[in-house]
Specification:
By secondary structure, the protein is of the alpha/beta class. 47% of the residues lie in helices and 17% in strands. The chain contains seven helices and five strands. The chain has a five-stranded mixed beta sheet with strand order 1-2-3-4-5. It is globular, with a radius of gyration of 16 Å. Helix 6 packs antiparallel against helix 7.
Length: 146
């Protein structure tokens, strides 16, 4: 498994099982987006306990996760991550969503997406509203709506 990271993303490639991510948590750092490059032989885990552990790790992660593949990833991989991206579109996708945004802006956006995994819509909307006002306060030099 190979991990390449920058301030915003961590790219994992040459991974045979997503269970390997659990042993590499510290190496991943604190990305905003984890891009997991898979191929047709990549699996979620070897057995049900490994699969459950990977699902729990990704659903509790404080970053967004994306399966990146040349072909169609398995339904199991698709369901474990927040999104799926075609390999040929990955760099352009990352450029588009993070263009002209500060790390703080990206983190505020991520907070909303991460909450949407489990929280009811009302809670997500509340978080989104608070994030908007915090970002506007930063921009305008005023106090934040905590």
């Amino acid at each position: 498994m190979t991990i390449n990271k920058n301030e915003i993303t961590a790219k994992v490639s040459q991974i045979s099982s997503l269970y390997q991510l659990l042993d590499s948590k510290e190496q991943l750092g604190e990305p905003c987006l984890l891009l997991i490059y898979t191929d047709s032989s990549t699996v979620l885990g070897a057995d049900d306990s490994e699969k459950s552990a990977v699902k729990a790790f990704l659903s509790d992660a404080q970053f967004m996760s994306a399966i990146v593949s040349e072909g169609e990833p398995s339904e199991e991989l698709r369901a474990a991550a927040d999104m799926c991206i075609k390999a040929e579109e990955a760099d352009e996708f990352v450029e588009k969503i993070f263009k002209d945004k500060t790390k703080k802006q990206i983190q505020e956006i991520n907070t909303c997406f991460i909450a949407a995994r489990k929280a009811p819509a009302e809670k997500v909307l509340e978080l989104e509203s608070r994030a908007f006002y915090r970002l506007m306060a930063d921009k305008n030099g005023g106090g934040a709506n905590e």
